[in-house]
Description:
Low-confidence stretches: none
Helix content: 25-40%
Largest sheet: 6 strands, mixed
Number of helices: 6
Shape: globular
Strand order of the largest sheet: 6-7-8-3-9-10
Structural class: alpha/beta
Distance between the termini: 27 Å
Amino acid sequence: MSDKIIQVENVSKWFGDFQALKDINLEVFLKEKIVVCGPSGSGKSTLLNILGTLDSANSGTVIICGKNVAYLDDVSLAELRNRHIGFVFQFHHLLPEFTALENVLIPAELMGAGHDAKSRAKELFEYVSLTERMDHFPSQLSGGERLRVAVLRALINTPDIILTDEPTGNLDTGNAERLLELFINICRDFQQAMIITTHDQNVSSIGSRACRLENGILHVIT
């Protein structure tokens, strides 16, 4: 596989008569950190959902890890998503009845590799200094800790790219800064690509490229 993880060509998306995305073009390469800024309602989450194969475009082409997603059935899409893409959402979506470790292992369990992934999961907890919190439930963790666990869940299958939707939106300044530092370290240490959507202009500084999405149009800033 080449270093190009995602290729998007002339992607548009409508919701009824409203056009949310207008002829989006984007290429994402290994180890890149791309920050997509824009106000609420600008289409950031819609774009991320299409890149993550959670939604489909009305027109245009989306190629992920060399595969045109338009030609994949639901089973193949799920396999592509679970193997190559990690997700971190603004709301962590951890399952409350599972411990932090069990939550992290869920994507590996879906691939039938839960037992083999357990040692990697423990290494990841050590990586983010949460080893002592592995057996705690989400309700016993702070907001910053829950989001770090969500990041580990995104990392467990060693995906090629991590998609993060407004990850700092519910964090105070200190936790937001620590999370962004973690993202920088992940791209460096694990050599993964990352796309971060945000309405916070300060987040743009960590990107190797920064874009702005406004009225469904993607503009490259740097």
